[in-house]
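Q: What does the assembled structure look like for these inputs?
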Amino acid sequence: GENVEQHPSTLSVQEGDSAVIKCTYSDSASNYFPWYKQELGKGPQLIIDIRSNVGEKKDQRIAVTLNKTAKHFSLHITETQPEDSAVYFCAADDPGGGADGLTFGKGTHLIIQP
Amino acid sequence: DADVTQTPRNRITKTGKRIMLECSQTKGHDRMYWYRQDPGLGLRLIYYSFDVKDINKGEISDGYSVSRQAQAKFSLSLESAIPNQTALYFCATSDRYEQYFGPGTRLTVT
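A:
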């Protein structure tokens, strides 16, 4: 099945700076890569996703890049704000695993310092 | 109203007790999932269901069972709870790719 590694586990940045979270995956057949944001006391919410036929996708201050050859994808947040503080999870679909669900990374706790 | 609801939101139970966590959704999705979240381990899939007649084990199904009572309802049971099942449990639904999560149930087994 799919294996997703996520780094770093904790990231602290100054408000206004950029934050980058990186993930690698193992199954070259995976073709859907979402990012979820989890705020304290809430369930994860999708913030952006990318499919394997696209190398980059942007939505206002957030962007995701995908390198299928290297099997890694990254989340970029620019001009960080206090409300960006949360735990972020990357994920990949698992077409070979039969679960037809998502395999998640272990999460990154993003802290925005005022 | 929330698209995916979970009850209870918090539960403390004793070792050996049977407990059921319930999930309901109003999104009309066929696919439903149960995940477990532990600090530092991310989200791990327990069970998933593609429709009322289809139930499948996930990565960590031992000690758990599920019931899909209707398209909109998917319950998770711990037949005999043990302390290492203390965790945050999430239900999710999807129409193929994007998954919509409920608010979670915090379960503590003493």
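The longest strand of chain B covers residues 42-51.
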